[in-house]
Amino acid sequence: MAASTRGRDGPPRARPGCEDLKVSHAYDGIGHALRGLGHFDEALKAYTEAKRIRTLVLGTSSPPVAATRNAEGHALSGLGRYADAEAAHREVLDIHNLYADPHDPRVA
Question: In whole angstroms, what is the distance from residue 47 CA to residue 79 CA?
Answer without folding.
Answer: 14
